[in-house]
Amino acid sequence: MRFLAALFLCLLPQLAAAQERPSAILVLDASGSMWGQIDGKAKITIAQEVIGGLLTDMPGDQALGLTAYGHRRKGDCNDIETLVLPGGDTRAAIANAVNAIQPKGKTPLSAAVIQAAETLKYSEEKATVILVSDGKETCEFDPCEVGKQLEQTGVDFTAHVIGFDIADPADRAELQCLAEETGGTYYSASNAQELGTAIFEVVEVNQPPVAITARVTATAVTSLSNTPITDPITWALTGPNGPVDVSAEQNPFSLDLDLGAYTLTADWLIGEQSQTTAFELFGSADATVQIVFDAPLPKASVTPSENPATAGSMIDILWAGPGAVQDFIGIGPQGATGADRWENFAYTKDGAPAALLMPVTPGAYTLSYFHGPDHLVLATADLTVTPVSASLTAPAEAPAGSQITLDWTGPGYDNDYIGIGPVAAQDSGRWQNYSYTREGSPLPLTLPVEPGAYMIRYFLGQDRAVLAERPITLTAAGASITAPETAPAGSTIQVGWSGPDYEGDYIAIGKPDASGAAQWETYSYTRDGSPLALETPTEPGNYLIRYITGQDRKTLAEAPLVLEPVTASLTAPQTAIGGAVITVEWTGPNYPQDFIAIGKTGAEGSARWAKYTRTEEGSPLTLQLPAAPGDYTLRYFLNADRSVLAEAPITLTQAPATLSAPPRARAGEVTEITWQGPDYPSDYIAIGKAGAEGSARWEKYIRTSSGNPATLPLPETPGTYVIRYFINADRYVIAEIPITLE
Predict the structure, then answer these.
(1) N or C: which terminal CB in the chain sees fewer CB atoms within 10 Å?
(2) What pLDDT, on the 0 to 100 scale, is given for residue 124?
């Protein structure tokens, strides 16, 4: 904002002495458009701040007045008011008037300039009007014609115009004409920077320059660091008025400089470098100038422990250098550029010597010491990489899916492996199965289950390069299944089989049209022998028994199986008391882990077996009932898939119970409770805070098995409590009474 204040000062007429200063009036646009924004701030707010700066820097004896338009009424071309007449030290009055303005109306800028000129008696005395406006004339006058008339009829009249954010060329032209017809200057500004620039373009036209300087700090650094160079730096500075004295060899140095263009040269004597930069000062804000010297590269060296070196091997690289955090030793083909210069690399932070993996392709390579984030090369060394060989010995033919043993020779580098894949396979299809060479030679290798022509290959772990290969033909493996044609659903059958019995092979049951994992709804591994026990699915229907290889789920043999429905029945009371134990008679398959359960009618999932007993207990069996009353269903569940074979409804009523105890008692003591209730095993009478939930309901308790009346210990803390009768099975409350502890 000091730029804007300086601009206004520039527009005040130049006079030699205070007593000769002519009067001037500032005409301020207060039309509604002044609420528009420049850089997020209302134009009226910018104008108010600028005028505030003007008044601060303006001499007290400057006779300045203030006229505004559009600030009182909307749509009124006569809304023009002289708020402050020119006179002695009007700064405070103008500041108060400007800050009180609220833009509202039209833009009678020409009439406002005329009124200001008449107030200054422009036809009799020298007069200056400074117009600040953001738009075109919206009333009857032509600003250009008004400028001509005022120039012709005035003694020495000048109008300077500052246009705020005026985008329309026609609007700018009429304001520019107003200024030029009176010998004034038009300034166009769309942002603060342009306003500042305008100040310095016109400052010498209107009055002697206001002394504006800027504090400049110059620093010399290297390209590797923003830290100032500590060695002596010699500076040479030339500005708009010639050389500027910078006598000290300080780095950084700071000077107060006049505005303008400068050239700065820095000599780094120890670094044997000189750098020059140019800069320009536009305003009084502090400025910084940085001169960057090329940093001298640190010294380094790299020496391979082997030369030539075998492809794919790991060798030691002796190195010397700065060892910065990001430094590394890399190897790449001779003549490579960019990242190709480090096919493989090792960080210097891991110590010296550096263990570096050689490329797998033989040829001429370059070792390099790479320094810093820009990968500057500090040292190089030539290195030759020689070929590495391998061999494979394996049968020419083997059953598909079997495991063979092969002999191999080769480098046995980390993660090298022997793989098998179809002869024409590409990429990872070349190693459908594989074994790592670290397991030694001879090496076991599991073969794919699909018959056909395959290739066994020795792969380098580094980049999957093939060192050796050998063809092999895989023949089909046979299998058979012997099993009953029908069986009860959910039963366990005996299945005879023949087949390769590879690791992970299994006999499975699934629907005939099933695919994927649905082919083995139930299964048993062939390692269990032949015949093996196989549990059947619980859903009746047509199925297939399959011999499936564990390696890739390939079916080698299959046999049909029809599963017939199984039934069950339940006989139990239709009503019972909640929490009681009832007797249930049943019929059914009694498969392992089958169970009779009770759950709420309409329940789903595990809520269907709130309580249960295994059928292995025999028929009849006993079943603990839930404590809560309601409508329930008894169900016979097949354990295999929780399917229901039979169900019967039962209604549970609440077990009757009563409690009797004194309404008040002393905290921390005991009280006698007279009770009536079912007295199921582990039932208890407890006391807890009124409104308590969960285990907080039984701060203290006593089992009903202790007798009647029961002696109940009381909590230590006074308050309002509730004594409750709990059925232990579900922590279910069947009676409660309040008690106050004092």
Answers:
(1) C
(2) 87
Assess contact for 175 and 130: CB atoms under 8 A.
no
What lies within 8 Å, CB to CB, of 98 at 6+ separation is 28, 47, 48, 51, 52, 66
HSE, CB side, 13 Å, CA atoms: give it for residue 509.
Answer: 29
Closest to 7 in 3D by CA, of 164, 195, 165, 163 = 195
Closest to 636 (Cα-Cα) out of 566, 577, 537: 566
Gap between the Cα atoms of 101 and 130, Å rounded: 18
Report phi then psi at 34, rounded to 5: -70, -5
539: pLDDT strictly greater than 50: yes
State the distance between the two ends of the chain, measured CA to CA, in whole angstroms.
76
Nearest to 634 by CA among 677, 689, 682, 583: 583
Q: How many CB atoms lie within 10 A of CB 406?
A: 19
User: Which residues on neighbouring strands pair with residue 569, listed in sequence order?
Assistant: 587
pTM across the whole model: 0.45
Element (H, E) at 257: strand 253-258
What pLDDT does 615 receive?
A: 96
Q: DSSP per residue over 100-168, as a string?
A: T----S---HHHHHHHHHHHTTTTTSEEEEEEEESS---SS--HHHHHHHHHHH-SEEEEEEEEES---
With both helix axes pointing from N to C terminus, report the angle between 43-57 and 2-11 in degrees, rounded to the nearest 10.
Answer: 70
Residue 638 has pLDDT above 90, yes or no: yes
Contact call for residues 168 and 135 (beta carbons, < 8 A): no
**Strand positions, DSSP E, 460-552:** 466-475, 480-482, 486-488, 492-498, 506-510, 522-525, 532-535, 541-548
Report the C-alpha dihedral over residues 352, 357, 362, 368, rounded to 10 degrees: -40
Tell whether the model's pLDDT for residue 291 goes beyond 50: yes
